[in-house]
Amino acid sequence: xxxxxxxxxxxxxxxxxxxxxxxxxxxxxxxxxxxxxxxxxxxxxxxxxxxxxxxxxxxxxxxxxxxxxxxxxxxxxxxxxxxxxxxxxxxxxxxxxxxxxxxxxxxxxxxxxxxxxxxxxxxxxxxxxxxxxxxxxxxxxxxxxxxxxxxxxxxxxxxxxxxxxxxxxxxxxxxxxxxxxxxxxxxxxxxxxxxxxxxxxxxxxxxxxxxxxxxxxxxxxxxxxxxxxxxxxxxxxxxxxxxxxxxxxxxxxxxxxxxxxxxxxxxxxxxxxxxxxxx
Length: 279
Known about the structure:
Distance between the termini: 63 Å
Number of strands: 7
Helix content: 25-40%
Protein name: F-box domain-containing protein
Shape: globular
Strand content: 5-15%
Largest sheet: 7 strands, parallel
Mean pLDDT: 81
InterPro entries: F-box-like_dom_sf (IPR036047)
Low-confidence stretches: none
Oligomer: single chain
């Protein structure tokens, strides 16, 4: 007796398609099979829509991504863009079949900023800023369970993490230290399950360092840690690292101008990989 894929339970089919996560062309083909396949595949495609370098995409692709996101915006946001003479949607574009924003498990502020600036490169910067703000607000409202946040953008949106319930499930944070005031404090109050943290240090403002130490200290199962210092030192962070000496398995350290103090590494009993580097 042979079994067709169409006969499989939805849960099994979903698990099979999830293994195609990094095969974009195949996932696009799955969209065309039937409604069920489409529903499962579109979730995978939008799980990390930033996963491919936007600079290597054609303007058509980046415009399509941005148009889809804008189509998902609430009417209030669309009216705000219209009043500011920001027209990205095609006049023939129908209402989206799905609420694509809620499928996102990864949020990259830098990639979003890059896509917007790429599409609106001939427009004043304040218009790009407004588009980014409204899309981020939508993500804050729609993403119920965020897994990864990447925050390196030169454009720093002032979205408030305390009103972002989906960030409670965050497991990976990649960011720079020079983020808006209270960012790290807000995150430390609601997110305690980070397994991977990567921070680029660009300054030594004591408040930010204290907030970063607090964030690191409050994590329950930190496994991967990357600290990168540009013309500053992250030595003051070391006391916060010692709490995780039994859980951290990967430790990547980079210092541009300061010697790396490595004596504390001996405390990490389960360390499997360490990459110390100084310029």
